[in-house]
Amino acid sequence: MKRITGTVLALCLFFAGMPVRTVHAMDISAKAYILMEAATGRVLYEQNAQEKLPMASTTKIMTTLLTIESGDLDAEFIVDAEAIHVEGSSMGLQENDLVSKRDLCYGMLLPSGNDAANAAAVSVAGDVPTFIDMMNERAEEIGMTRTCFATPSGLDGEGHGSSAHDMALLTREALRDPTFRSICSQPSACVNFGNPPYDRTLYNSNKLLGMYEGVIGVKTGFTDDAGRCLVSACERDGVTLICVTLNAPDDWNDHKKLYDAGFASVECRELPVPEELTQNVAGSDAVQIAVKPLETVSIGAWEGDTSEVHTRILKAPFVYAPVAAGDAVGTLEYYYGTTLIASVPLCAAEDAAALPEPEPENAFVRFWNWLCGLKK
Question: Residue 54: is the preceding peptide bond cis (ω within 30°)?
């Protein structure tokens, strides 16, 4: 208990020292909002970001992520007839349609199909209640402490809600998946499903994709209870920002204002490499060799400052020769507070040849050594 308390205190002190700004002067319409730098998870701007609120169809970010993580995305199956009978937005599924999980992911992220969300839940978990359990377990893994999922689609359900901060954490996790990232960024997509299957075009409800330079997704949402909800991400000059607004009557403009402020405040900076990276070597004349990271890591740094990032080097006390330049010898981890930013392989920067094998002693030498031992 003492260690847990100490950890929480350390985190509170760490985050207390970070500048987080509200933007009342920009006239943000959202009841709650957040702007987060994706690489580090650093909060740049926020208002009521920890308040649990309904989040409508932005729920489908989690449903889609779990569907992608379940694998086998292109195998066709017949949709569950009961699951697709749901109110609200639809991708157009009908009973006995042949569809794939990949098609359902497009159906969730583009036209925000509630039928697609329910069909995906049944295809992944066997039934909707089991899938909801999976959603909440995954949310706990991500660190979404103010979230409760009660439906796969985002339609109202008892306790269903999240915070702007939690939805930003979810989006940060989802965008690491290249399939999710690719699908949510498409203004439209051709999919093939039905009975028999045929090609049709689905259109993305996220109009921000064509309204602001660099936007790469992510998901819209609306119910009478939740109001207009929007989760987006934007890339510019090597920096990715994530924006979440909940209950925002003017969400498109909210996001543009927050991105304008965010990109004016952060700069892409390459993280420094620790000096004198070396690796001890056994069985070689070269008792130590230089090592280097396989690639560089960049973040969107607040006013260009990277001092809050620290590193951790993971490698064995020594390696056995021979070692060739380029051989993996460990890992360099970058952290922002307790958040892991990146893990980069450490590789040998030079060769280390093995010492030559000693020549075997002949029988006479072994006998002579034995005699010398007896004389002693």
Answer: no
In terms of Cα–Cα distance, which of 131, 183, 161 is closest to 56? 161
Distance CA 273, CA 322 (A): 25
CA dist., res. 51 & res. 147, Å (int): 10
Q: Which residues are catalytic?
A: 57, 60, 112
Query: How many Å apart are CA 274 and CA 38, to the nearest integer?
Result: 23
- Contact at 8 Å (CB) between 166 and 147? yes
Residue type, 304: G
- CA 156/CA 134 separation, integer angstroms: 18
The token duo for 101 is: 């999980």
What's this model's pTM, rounded to 2 decimal places?
0.86
DSSP β-bridge partners for residue 290: 278
Q: Residues of CATH 3.40.710.10 domain(s) within the chain?
A: 17-268
Report the C-alpha gap between 221 and 150 in whole angstroms: 16
Q: CATH number of the domain at 271-376, out of 2.60.410.10, 3.30.70.100, 1.10.10.10, 3.30.1330.40?
A: 2.60.410.10
What is the DSSP-derived secondary structure letter of residue 269?
E
Neighbours of 347 (CB within 10 A): 18
Question: Are the C-beta atoms of residues 233 and 171 closer than 8 Å to each other?
Answer: yes
- pLDDT tens for each residue of 130-154: 999 999 999 999 999 999 999 999 9
**Superfamily of segment(s) 17-268:** DD-peptidase/beta-lactamase superfamily (3.40.710.10)
| Structure-token pair, residue 369 | 């050594």
Closest by Cα among 215, 209, 210 to 259? 215
Cβ count near 149 (within 10 Å): 25
Cα atoms found within 13 Å of the Cα of residue 256, Cβ hemisphere only: 11
Which of 129, 151, 157 is closest to 62 using CA atoms? Answer: 151
For the segment 32-91, what is each residue's pLDDT rounded down to a tens digit? 999 999 999 999 999 999 999 999 999 999 999 999 999 999 999 999 999 999 999 999
Query: Where in the chain are all domains bearing CATH 2.60.410.10?
Result: 271-376
| Region for 303 from its dihedrals, namely left if φ exceeds 0, alpha if ψ lies in -120 to 50, beta otherwise | left
